[in-house]
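Consider the following assembly input.
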Amino acid sequence: MEPVSTPHRPHKHLRTEKLPTDPLKPRIVLVGNPNVGKSVIFNYLSGLYVDVSNFPGTTIEVSKASYLGYEVFDTPGIYGVSSFNDEERVARDIILNGDIIVNIVDAVHLERDLFLTQQLIDMGKRVGLVVNMMDEAHRQRIAVDLDRLEEELGIPVIGTVAIKRKGLEEIHELIVRAAEGRQNRTLHAELHTMLSSVGSQGEALLVLEGDTIVAERHGIPPADIGRREEIYIDRRNRVNRILQHTVTDMETGKRVSTVLGRLSVSPIFGFPLLAVILFFVYQFVGVFVAQDIVEITEGEIGKGFVEFHIKSWVARDAATTIGVEILGLDGEATVQRDFRFDDGISGNPALWRDLRAFIDGNDVEYRFTYDNPWLILFFGEFGAITMTLTYLVFLLLPLVLGFYFALSILEDSGYLPRLATLVDRSLRFIGLNGRAVIPLILGFGCVTMATITTRLLGSQREKTIATTILQLAIPCSAQLGVIAALLATAGPQATLIYTGVIFGFLVALGTVMNKTLPGKISPLLIDLPHMRMPQLNNVTKKTLYKTYFFMKEASPWFFIGALVVSILQVTGALTRIMGALEPLVVGWLQLPREAATAFVMGLVRRDFGAAGMFYLDLSAFQTVAALVTITLFVPCVASLMVMLKERGLREGMTIWFGSLVLALLVGGIVSQILI
Amino acid sequence: MQLSTIRKGMRVRIEQLPQGEMRSHFIRIGLMEGVTVSCLERLPGGTIVLGLHHQEVALSDELASAIMISRL
C-alpha cells in the first residue's frame, strides 16, 4: 500500500494556452476517456446555454458552460494527459488551468480508465470520480466496490448511469468534496523539488513524463522517454493493484457482449449490416430531408415566400424588370412575361396587381433584374444576401440538421468505431485509415460540412487526401438528387458507366496520392465502446450543437462565395468565362454549347450545374460525359472557401486547379471513348 | 510469433511491445508484456479485434505485426 501525501499549495504562475475564463469563478473540468458518457454529464451540468469555441491555435472544439457559481469545461476524450495528439494537448492545457477535475470513467473499462484517474491524482489536482455505466457492468456481471475505490484512490467516488440520469444528483456533492488523492510518494517528493522552476505540480509531472511543450514553456529540458515509461509502468501496476481489491468478475473467463456489437465487426455480417444502416441513413437524409423537407423549405418558404418578399420590397422604389415564367407540370416554362417598373413597384400599383393576377395560383419562376448594379449584387439572381439566405437557412440548415442527427445516433450507439474497424483495410488503398469513413460519408450530405470534419483525422497527410477526395470525387446530396434523376432518364448502362468511372477515379486518385505524398498511413488502434441505445435527449442536444457550430463557422464563407459570383455576374466576367469554356465544351467534351453555362453555374452551387443539364436534350452517353465532368468539377464556392481555410491557400488552390483540369480531362476522355 | 498471425478464438500472451510513443499508449490502455489477450474477430486484410479483459480493441495488421506473442 502506498503512503498518503499531504496536500500542498501550488505556485501560481501558469503560462499555458487559455480559453477566456472568469477569474472569480472556480473552474470545473470534465475529463475522461472517449465514449464514457462525458457529454451526457456535461449536458446535465450545463443546462441550456453552452459556449462552443475553438481552442486557441487549434481546430478542436471546446464547450464551456456555467453551473451554479462555477465555470464548467468539457474536454476531448483522452487516454492520458500528454501531447501525443491535438486532443491531448488541448485537454492538457484545460486540465492544468482547472481547479476541480470531475473524472468520468466507464465501470466496465476501469482497467483502462483508472490510468488517467491516477495520472490526474499524481498531478496534484482536486479530483472527484464518476464511475459511469454501472448498469452495463451489472449486465456483464462485474461488481465494482465504490467505497473501497474511494479509499484506495483517496478521492470521492460516485456510481452513475448517466444516460438514464441515475446518480447524477450526487455530482454536486462530488464537486464540493473533490480532493487531492493518494499520490506516489517518491514521485511526489521529486515533483516538489521541481516546483521552483516549473510552477505547478501538474506541469512538473508532465515535464518528468517527457512532455516537450510544457518543458519548453518553462525553459527546461523534458525528461527522457525512459523516465516516462518508468512512471507509466509504476502507475499501471498501481492501477492493477487497486483493481484487484475493487473489481470482481462474477463469471470469470466468460465474456458477455452485445450480439450486435460483435456482428458489426464480423467479416460475414459486418458488411450487410453496414449496407442496411446506410440504406436507412439514405432514406432519412437523402430522401426524406434532402427531397421532401427541402422542397418545402427551399422551394415554397425560401424562394416562393421569403426571397420573393425581400426582392419585391427592394424593388418598391427601384427601377426593376420582373420576369415571370409559369411552369407546366413537368417543370418547364410554358408562358413567360416581363413586367417593367420604371419607378419601382410603388410607382405602378396597377402593373403590380397585373403581376399578382398573372402569378395567381400557378407554379412560377421569377427573376428580378434591377437597373442599379449594387442591388443586383446583393438582391439579384445570385444576390449575395438573398441567395445566401435561401441557401443557408432553407436548404443547408435542414440538411445539416438531418445529417448530424443521423451521425449523432450512430455515434451514441457506439457503431462508428466499429465501422472504422470494418473499412480500415479498404481505406488503406486510398491512403486513409478507418476513421476517414466519417468525413467521406458526410461528404454525400454536404462537402463543405465534411471538409470541416476532416479535422478529426490523425495526420496532415490524411487530411490532405481526404479533402481532395471529398472535393473531387464525392457528389454532395444537392447534386446527387439531380444526378440520379438524369441517370434515370439515361438508362442503366449509362448509370453503370458513370458509377464505374467515378469510383475508379476515386480509387486511382487515392492510390496515386498515397504513393506520392511523403509519410505513411497512421495505423488503426481504436477501442470499441459498448453498443447502446442512443437517448433522444442527448442526440438532440448533440445535433443542435454540431449544427450551430457548423453554421457559425461556414455561413460567412457562403456569403463571401455568393458575393464573388455576384461580382463576376455584374461585371460581365461570368459571361466571358462561359464564352471561353465553349470551345472546350463543344470540341473536347462534345456537348452542346449551353452546357458551358451549366458548368459555370456549378461554381455557384454544384447542383445548379447538374440541374442545367436537364434542358439540354443530351444523349445517354453525353449525359455520362457531362455528369462525370460536373461531379469532378470544382466544388461549390462555399466548399472552396472552407477548404482554403482548412488546408491553406497553396494546398487549397492546388486541389481546386487540379479538380478543374482533371474534370475536363476525365470527362473528355469518357466522351471521346463513348461518343 | 507476431500478433498478426493470431486466429479467431485464440488466447495468447503478450511478450514484447514496440518501442516509442505507441508503447506508452499501450501501457495506458493496459496492454503490457505478460497480459493475456484473445482474438475476438479477424477481418479480411488482417485487421484484428482483441479482447483485453473487458475491452475490445481493434488494431491494424501493421501494428499487430510489431507485437510479439506466445501461445498459451
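Chain A touches chain B at residues 79-80, 82, 84, 108-109, 111-112, 115-116, 140, 142, 225, 228-229, 232-233, 236, 239-240, 255, 257, 261-262, 265-267, 270, 417-418, 420-422, 424-426, 428, 433-434, 523-528 (CB under 8 Å). Ask yourself how this observation constrains the way the partners meet.
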